[in-house]
Design brief:
The protein has about 300 residues and is of the alpha/beta class. It folds into two domains: about 120 residues, 2-Layer Sandwich (Nucleotidyltransferase, domain 5); about 160 residues, Nucleotidyltransferase, domain 5, CATH 3.30.420. It is built from ten helices and twelve strands. It has a five-stranded mixed β-sheet with strand order 3-2-1-4-7. Helix 9 links the parallel strand 11 and strand 12. The longest helix is centred in the last third of the chain and has 25 residues. The two termini are about 20 Å apart.
């Protein structure tokens, strides 16, 4: 058995998994807003669970961002600033006096689904998380591929080359506005819609208007479909995954995946793609389940 933790901006979720994937225990707590308290909360949960089950257990943790191989500090975690630029893994190892496996939340999502979820029958599994941001993770042969810099799979932060010309023309374009995430994430969709139509709506409200055939929402979601398909085609042209598995809050709003799949083929070289698009077996629980798998499989 192993304990897995999912550390997010608002919650710390834990689960104990048996080797066969059966859940033994699960809990959820509010995430403190300071680093020391986050480490202490995880320690408290571990002590509580080990006392309950009368055994010392391995620990895996998934979180936004990654640990820099060069510095050992967490980087690229803007939505969880309490661990940004902190030696999170080192602190947890010292607090728990044992090995602790830490990994990006998108990678843990993909690992969980690749091992015994929707992607268990596929070799190359690409996890896509469409929520407030756009994250991802790559798993090949049931092993996370994170790369020497820890950023493999971060498709949402790819710069769109055509935006460079606009940047030169406008002189005001923020580089973050040129990333894929700005076009396919919930926050990005809402920002673009509200700016264009002088509204103040959230992504789920825009999707609801789309389903009611409101003209402005229909136009924006049609753009969203194209932007998402073009972005996915870029991944196909580089990695050619057997399966895309989609998670996150925005994914729950999408009821047109067949259309996205066909559009993606349009932008793939040769206009052919035999991969499949699937929803996750474990939904939002895939991240914490993947964390409970860390250490059982090589992370690179």
């Amino acid at each position: 058995m192993q304990i897995g933790f999912d550390v997010g901006a608002t919650k710390i979720e834990s689960v104990i998994l048996k080797d066969n994937g059966e859940e033994v225990d699960r809990s959820r707590r509010d995430c403190p807003k300071d680093y020391i308290s986050i480490v202490q909360t995880i320690k408290d949960v571990v002590v509580e669970l080990e006392k309950k089950h009368n055994k010392t257990l391995p620990v895996g943790v998934c979180h936004p961002g990654v640990h820099s191989p060069q510095t050992g500090l967490v980087k690229n975690a803007p939505n969880c600033v309490w661990i940004e630029k902190k030696p999170f893994q080192k602190s947890l190892r010292e607090a728990l006096n044992r090995e602790v496996f830490c990994e990006n939340d998108g990678n843990c999502f993909a690992l969980s689904e690749a091992i015994d979820g929707a992607g268990k029958h596929y070799k190359i599994v690409y996890g896509i998380i469409l929520g407030s941001g756009a994250g991802g993770g790559l798993v090949i042969d049931k092993q996370i591929v994170s790369g020497p810099n820890g950023v493999a799979g971060e498709w949402g932060h790819n710069q769109l080359p055509f935006m460079a010309a606009q940047k030169e023309e406008l002189k005001t374009l923020n580089l973050r506005d040129a990333e894929v995430e700005s076009f396919v994430s919930g926050l990005g969709l809402a920002k673009r819609f509200n700016k264009k139509y002088k509204k103040n709506l959230k992504a789920n409200e825009i999707f609801e208007l789309y389903r009611r055939h409101e003209l402005d929402a229909e136009k924006m979601i049609e753009e969203f479909k194209t932007n998402l398909a073009m972005s996915l085609a870029t991944i196909v042209n580089i990695l050619d995954p057997d399966v895309f598995i989609f998670g996150g809050g925005v994914t729950n709003e999408i009821d047109f995946f067949d259309e996205i799949e066909n559009l993606t083929k349009k932008y793939v070289i040769g206009k052919e793609y035999e991969g499949v698009f699937l929803k996750p077996k474990y939904g939002d629980a895939s991240g914490v389940r993947g964390a409970a798998r860390l250490g059982r499989k090589s992370s690179y």
